[in-house]
Amino acid sequence: MSPTTQSIWADLTQIRAQAPLVHNITNFVVMNNTANALLALGASPAMVHAPEEVEDFVSISSSLVVNIGTLDDHFVTGMTLAMRRAKELGKPIVFDPVGVGATAYRNQVSQDLLTLATPTVIRGNASEIMALAGLNAQTKGVDSLFGSDAALDAARRLSSVWGCVVVISGATDYIVLGDQVASVANGHSLMTKVTGMGCTATALTGAFAAVNTNYFQAATHAMAVMGIAGELAAEKKLAPGSLQVNFLDALYTLTESEIDDRLKLTWS
Amino acid sequence: MSPTTQSIWADLTQIRAQAPLVHNITNFVVMNNTANALLALGASPAMVHAPEEVEDFVSISSSLVVNIGTLDDHFVTGMTLAMRRAKELGKPIVFDPVGVGATAYRNQVSQDLLTLATPTVIRGNASEIMALAGLNAQTKGVDSLFGSDAALDAARRLSSVWGCVVVISGATDYIVLGDQVASVANGHSLMTKVTGMGCTATALTGAFAAVNTNYFQAATHAMAVMGIAGELAAEKKLAPGSLQVNFLDALYTLTESEIDDRLKLTWS
Amino acid sequence: MSPTTQSIWADLTQIRAQAPLVHNITNFVVMNNTANALLALGASPAMVHAPEEVEDFVSISSSLVVNIGTLDDHFVTGMTLAMRRAKELGKPIVFDPVGVGATAYRNQVSQDLLTLATPTVIRGNASEIMALAGLNAQTKGVDSLFGSDAALDAARRLSSVWGCVVVISGATDYIVLGDQVASVANGHSLMTKVTGMGCTATALTGAFAAVNTNYFQAATHAMAVMGIAGELAAEKKLAPGSLQVNFLDALYTLTESEIDDRLKLTWS
């Protein structure tokens, strides 16, 4: 096994052993499948957004995942309280700016949340990362119009402004922290035909960040595991209904050899 | 290939090529599976309901789907703003009056939305179409107590009052515009054992209406594709968990021959 | 067939024949899969939470299921109105205190709802039942830290204070009413790796309570059917994505012999 495989495997083993509680404030579309992906990975997910309880819940959780997919004002209140509390307690925050760039509201909320409590990791597609970095990226709703490499400069800028890890998802995923860039070329194009696979990548990053405080590494490991499970699933059957099922199965049964055999990870 | 098959195939090809952005304001139960059905068909779905952004989002979308399944006041505000904006911009609106007839609230909201901005297409089961037409149809929650043919007069009345296409789903689907009626006898009874298949038909209609401005045709094509994909899925395995998976797979892999071999469509 | 099998089968046959309308006010994570589980069982589910209509909806439903998974204030208003109305009309209420014990808010809302309108059946995991009984049980988010037998005293106390059936889910499920205890040792540990299987058990209990006014029996039958369908699914494939699909298939196709062959139910 390569040292990187061993390092991914160490994280995964710890997730499976400890089942860290991952607190999600996420969108309605993906609540079910991200909860299932976290369970299949070995973590313990909870979806809690009420202003009355998010602070209490953050305090018992190992990490916080915030996703603005089906944004509305009521959820923003919960996100605000939860992120502030996570920051006070030093718990990792993973932020997914779904659809940022598509509306002024999404842009404003994203900026407000970043300013309030800088996330540990930001994960988005190329359009989202470019929009968040203040570049006038065009978006197509929640889908990207660009390849992930087009957003590398934006990711570097975001990472340096906010001092956090930035992940660009795409055919190749880039994980950026300051001058460091890792790239993961795992995954399968069919994954874009299943809703919420990006959101799932964000949620899994929350689980890895719960067990590995080297967050650059944690995010990279999450993207590798995500991509490899996606490949395994796509090879079972090239159709999106089956992919969703087979992806969860692959996550649950993932072995160290499967990781080692398939890993396409470059640190630079 | 029959001319009708060719016409359906032309729409489907255009959806797959253009991936039109379909803006959904829909219920919590089906957000995930209607997003997946739209993706499997080839469209680009987004679920956006916040009053702060629905107008912006309508303006970048190709069509708007409004579904009152898990209705509440907050969503009604979003629906109102979105439908008004879609009307101003001349974008097609597909409306699904889930459970209308079951409560006074659902009746009131449906009438208010129709009056505010007449949809391009209304799709419901027989009970819903009858209730919406002001007939005192009994409903059983969100399920119909009638065969689809029982609602034909109600559909004609609705279509003539509002000047829009009306679709009645059932063992046979009827698509009505003024004096024109098309009927689609595809589909499988097992589809009623999977939640949100009606909502999925509505969402797919949104995708067809995004590429075909003959909305009577667009709605008919959507019901044909829905029914044929359902048949293909039911023939794989006669059980509802599998049906949901196989339905998405069938939508994604659907070929022109499969449509031509199975199509049971009558224009009259 | 054993008398117990016959009694379970009688309920199941009635559910399939009558398709009772089960009104759910439940959490966003599980709305889709609990609706699908109720459909696969043979019931007619509806998810309705708006304060404007829950009372009307309760009055046309056969039972009410209230689940506090993704609790917030707006839903609490709907739950309050619905439970009060169900009580007035003598309709069975099944209550699932998801995550109670994890936050003060959850504890308060649960106590308020119990006081307002005692449920017919309360179903939770061991941590939840202990927390609800006022024991200082530790929870881990929405997962239990205890085996189900650890909560037997708490269940007896809850049952005697509120005069209702209390179900503790776990490797062995306990169903408690006063001095009576039934235990069901069916099920499979993989079920804990699929989100919302507990919520599904609660929803199925709503369907059984709709056709059997011996609620102790109804709850026991629901847990038996749940466990057996879970076993059948786990035996098809030992992976969580497949389990969810195969569970729905097994529920839908469940036969009297499958129940009789597998039932591990003890009345004491």
TrEMBL record, chains A, B, C:
Its cofactor is Mg(2+). InterPro entries: Hyethyz_kinase, Ribokinase-like. The keyword Magnesium applies. Gene3D superfamilies: 3.40.1190.20. Keywords: ATP-binding, Kinase, Magnesium, Metal-binding, Nucleotide-binding, Thiamine biosynthesis, Transferase. ATP binds at R123, S169. One of its GO terms (biological process) is thiamine diphosphate biosynthetic process. Substrate binds at M47, G196. One of its GO terms (molecular function) is hydroxyethylthiazole kinase activity. It comes from the Bacteria. It holds the Pfam family HK. It catalyses: 5-(2-hydroxyethyl)-4-methylthiazole + ATP = 4-methyl-5-(2-phosphooxyethyl)-thiazole + ADP + H(+). It is an enzyme of class 2 (transferase). Belongs to the Thz kinase family. Catalyzes the phosphorylation of the hydroxyl group of 4-methyl-5-beta-hydroxyethylthiazole (THZ). This is Hydroxyethylthiazole kinase. It comes from Spirosoma arboris. The gene is thiM.
